[in-house]
Amino acid sequence: MKSKQIDNLVDGYHKMTERLAERLHNIEDLTRDAFHDVLAGLRDESVSLKELTIHEAQQVADWVKRDFYAVAQEAKKTREDFREWFPFEVKVEESYLWDKIMSAADKTTVDLLELKEEAMLADFELWRTGEVTAPGILECTKCGEQLHFASAGHIPPCPKCKNTTFVRSAASTTENAQSD
C-alpha cells in the first residue's frame, strides 16, 4: 500500500470517528441498529464527499465498528472507566467517542452481545497489517510483540517476526497503566 493511500485511510478513520462521536452525542437511546444506521450513513457520506472510495469507506467503517466493539467489550468486562486501562492521552474528540462507547456499553448489553456474534462471524477479533486501528496496544498473534498506538494509525507488520495478525491487548494495557 502506498504512503498516500495509507495517509488517506488514517485520515478517513479520524474523520469517521469524529463524526461518529458527534452523531452519537445526539442519540438518547443508542441501540445496535441505531449504531449501524449512523455508521452506514457516515460511510456513504465519506464517499459522497469524495474523501474515500466505496471500498475504502467500507473498510474504514468496518475498522471503526471493530474498535467500537473492542472498547465496549473491554469496558463491560472490566467495569472500569477506559482511562483506567487506556495507556495514552487521547485527543478530546477521541475521548468523547470512548465516553459515548462506555455509556452505550452499559445501556445496550444485549445489543453488544449480538454485535459480538456478528464481529466473530466477520473475523473482527483480529487486527491485520494494512488496516487502521484506534489508539491502544495490539499484540502479535505469533510472537507476542506489542505495537503501541498513541492515536489512530496504520498497522505495520510485526517488527519482530513480520507476522501480519494481531489481537487487542487489553490485559497488558491494564498492567501497563497500573505500573506507570
Fold and architecture overview:
60% of the residues lie in helices and 11% in strands. Strand 3 (136-140) and strand 4 form a beta hairpin. It has one domain. The protein has 180 residues and is of the alpha+beta class. Strands 1-6-3-4 form a 4-stranded antiparallel β-sheet, covered by helices on one side. Strands 2-5 form a two-stranded antiparallel ribbon.
Number of domains: 1
- Residue-averaged pLDDT: 75
The structure class reads alpha+beta
- Large-scale geometry: globular
Q: Describe the biggest sheet?
A: 4 strands, antiparallel
How far from one another are the termini? 36 Å
Strand content: 5-15%
User: What fraction, in percent, of the residue positions are helical?
Assistant: 55-70%
Count up the helices: 7
Note poorly predicted spans: 81-93, 105-110, 171-180
Order of helices and strands: HHHHHHEEEEEEH
Radius of gyration over C-alpha positions, nearest whole angstrom: 16 Å
By DSSP, the count of extended strands is 6
- Kindly report the spatial arrangement of strands forming the biggest sheet: 1-6-3-4
Secondary-structure blueprint:
Layout: H1 3-25, H2 32-48, H3 54-78, H4 82-85, H5 92-107, H6 109-121, E1 127-128, E2 132-133, E3 136-140, E4 146-149, E5 153-154, E6 165-168, H7 170-179
Antiparallel strand pairs: 1-6, 2-5, 3-4, 3-6
Helix pairs in contact: 1-2, 1-3, 1-5, 2-3, 3-5, 3-6
Any descriptors?
about 180 residues, alpha+beta, four-stranded antiparallel β-sheet, two-stranded antiparallel sheet, 7 helices, 6 strands, about 10% strand, disordered C terminus
